[in-house]
Amino acid sequence: MDVTFISSAILFRVLMPSLFAAVCVDEKSDVLKVPSATLVLIRQADVSAKEAGALKELKIVPGAKVAEGEVVGSLDDERQKLAVKTAQLNHKIAVIEANDTVAVAAAEAAVREAELEKKRLEAAASISGKTAESEVAIRLAEKTVEVAKLELSRAQKARESFSASVSNAELTRLQSILDQRTLELEKATEEKGIAALRPVVDNAAVAEQAETVERTKLLAREKQRLVDVAQVNSEIAANELESAQLMLQRRQLTAPFAGSIVAVHRQPGEWVEPGAAVFRLIALDRLRAEAMISATHVNRLKEGMPVRILSKDSAVEPVSGALAWVSDEIEPLNQQVRIWVEFDNSKVRMRPGMVVSLEIPIE
Q: Which of 114, 128, 299, 337 could pair with 198 as two cysteines, CB 3.0-4.6 Å apart?
């Protein structure tokens, strides 16, 4: 049989009666008295480096008090500082590009101008179309020719009836007028033919301008797309800057909570790897008393119940705490249950490792 097991069994049989007798209930005051509880730390940490590098500085020594979040040292960070500056410059460039809307405004103005020109050309095409359809000029020219022919014919008949009634000069003038009106009719006819071609030209100009409008719209969309991309790049640059700043912060050693430095494991100049402990930090402002009580009393305990903690040193005043935890598990060897009592120790009346007694008022 294992000698260790025999020794443990003998020790358990020897200590078990005293353990059960240690915890008692004062029936007069209804107080559960626990004569032995050990004080332990609630918050303690071996603070380690988050990145690899040479330890640049360390501002602490054992016994020093630090505040939560206080920077107490750092790794070599020159390269990371340059990375932060580069990220800041890239972010500034990205912000400038994202806010540069001049090109977009110019493209939108070009679209408006092209649309206005298209409307002007459409109006001109409409006018030329109506002009090409009009017969007024030809009909007017035809009427003037008819009038000129009538006047010349009347003069010729009058001359035939009475030779002195119309002079040769008058006949010549009337003939000239008829010739002129005939030429005007020919001109009106020719102009109508030309006017019939004008709508074709104007409509072609409208179609061309419509293409120009679409092209300027596409250019405006492209400019807007570039601005949208620049805005996304600005966000990416902001994330890269934040990442660079975070990496710089990760090269700093900070206190995760307020407390006292109890050990320093590294010195400036030493190389540290991620996870390597640099210093140990403890907080004494709040402590925990751990004890074992008989399972026969466990049903009378509730978390949150007030507890009085008494030091073995009479010079240390008792403090008040609260029952923080009662284990659901009963130790099979000694039929005892583990309990935790937490209390405020901001005045540092007690220290971890001390053995105290507990008084728990129960019903």
A: 128
Work out the number of other CB atoms within 10 angstroms of the CB of residue 165.
12
Note whether 259 and 284 are within 8 A (CB). Answer: yes
Element (H, E) at 247: helix 168-249
> What is the average pLDDT score of the chain?
86
Q: Are residues 180 and 49 in the same domain?
A: no
Q: Please say whether the beta carbons of 140 and 191 come within 8 A.
A: no
Q: Are residues 122 and 144 in the same domain?
A: yes
- Residues 48, 340: Cα–Cα separation, whole Å: 29
Could you report the per-residue pLDDT of 300-319, keeping only the tens digit for each? 899 999 999 999 887 889 99
Domain shared by 206 and 271, yes or no: no
Main-chain dihedrals φ then ψ at residue 48, nearest 5 degrees: -115, 165
Q: What residue numbers bound the domain in which 296 lies? A: 22-67+260-361
Residue carrying the six token digits 């710089």: 248
Closest CA to 34 of 363, 356, 362: 356
In a shared domain, residues 105 and 242: yes
Task: Specify if 222 maps to a domain.
Answer: yes
DSSP code, position 306: E
Domain identity same for 117 and 206: yes
Picking from 247, 268, 303, the residue at the C-terminal end of a domain is: 247
Q: Which of 335, 317, 312, 328 has its CA nearest to residue 36?
A: 312
For 329-356, the pLDDT digits (tens) are 999 999 999 999 999 999 888 999 999 9
Q: How many domains does the chain have?
A: 2
How many Å apart are CA 324 and CA 232, to the nearest integer? 51
SS3 category, 335: coil
